[in-house]
UniProtKB/TrEMBL annotation:
Domain of life where this protein originates: Eukaryota
Pfam families (UniProt xref): GIY-YIG, NUMOD1, NUMOD3
Source species: Hypocreales sp. IMI 338019R
Protein name: GIY-YIG endonuclease
Record domain GIY-YIG: where: 74-165
InterPro entries registered for this protein in UniProt: GIY-YIG_endonuc, GIY-YIG_endonuc_sf, Intron_endoG1, Intron_nuc_1_rpt, NUMOD1, NUMOD3
NCBIfam families: grpIintron_endo
């Protein structure tokens, strides 16, 4: 087994890592290399292992994570946010460490207990560590294997010292909220202040990371069906029950799903429809456009 110094990865870590621990490199699947700091009999972290996992390297300044893009992009593995005040940590896994780090820092798909700790102690009191990572030519890595590895790391620590909510790592991929949970979520987000992204905008860097250009986009080379377009139009509609043409006595003459349909019927633009509808104006001295109650 060959050993390497951590500073061969990038000289910048000389400034951020106090103890230059060795780590081991082993082959995994084709085109992949695995790097980790704690060695057991079969080169894996086991639950309740006597030797606790030790970070390969640590980032201490989370305000400038863009500096580490070249080092972390396209590398997957096991990471941790460590509270330097009380030692408590959150352990997670990722197929792209750089994207996942930015998601946590922008409170996107992040652990709620961790976000509360960020607010309580301040981001400056957290280090971000990597226990293990993979380099690979493509991101073809079995999801179950990665979550099992994350579980092994979680179980290697006293659970009371973690922000993790479960001892077993799980994914929300394919998860559907229960019928009981959905109304609660809708009610909660009626107040926009409760939304994690309220008043925030993604940086250009994050937008580039979460965008999926070309064949990475699930709709690449495809077009929505007329039925799908109609459903999307209804969901985007400002008026849930649609809009209608009324006479001056308030009697409904004809109903439409949205402003576009009403505009097409009268051969006018949706902007014109909106002007008459929003300002209670009378159209051609005979009609009023109103939302359906």
């Amino acid at each position: 087994m060959c050993k390497y110094k951590i500073n061969i990865l990038n000289p910048i870590f000389k400034l951020h890592y106090e103890n230059k621990l060795p780590f081991y490199r082993i082959s995994t699947t084709s085109g992949q290399k695995r790097f980790y700091s704690s060695k057991s009999i079969d080169n894996t972290i086991k639950p309740n292992n006597i030797i606790k996992p030790t970070p390969i390297f640590v980032l201490k300044n989370l305000d400038h994570v863009n500096l580490y893009k070249e080092l972390l992009k396209n590398k997957g593995g096991i990471y941790s946010f460590i509270n330097i005040i009380n030692g408590k940590q959150y352990i997670g896994s990722a197929k792209d460490l750089y994207i996942r780090l930015n998601e946590h820092l922008n409170n996107k798909k992040s652990n709620s207990s961790l976000q509360k700790a960020f607010k309580k102690y301040g981001l400056e009191n957290f280090n971000w560590a990597i226990y293990e990572y993979f380099t690979y030519e493509t991101k073809i890595l079995h999801h179950d294997a990665l979550t099992q590895l994350e579980t092994n790391y979680i179980q290697a620590f006293d659970f009371s010292t973690l922000y993790n909510m479960k001892r077993i790592a799980t994914s929300s991929f394919g998860y559907k909220h229960t019928d009981e949970a959905i109304p609660k979520m809708i009610e909660r987000f009626k107040d926009k202040n409760n939304h994690p992204m309220f008043g925030k905008t993604h940086s250009e860097e994050v937008l580039r990371l979460i965008s999926k250009p070309g064949d990475l986009n699930p709709m690449f080379g495809k077009t929505h069906t007329d039925k799908a377009k109609k459903l999307m139009s209804i969901k985007k509609n400002k008026y849930i029950n649609g809009v209608g043409i009324f006479d001056l006595n308030g009697n409904l003459i004809k109903k439409f799903n949205n402003n576009i349909e009403l505009g097409n019927y009268l051969n006018i633009s949706k902007v014109t429809v909106g002007k008459y509808l929003n300002n209670n104006l009378i159209y051609k001295d005979s009609y009023i456009f109103k939302p359906i109650q």
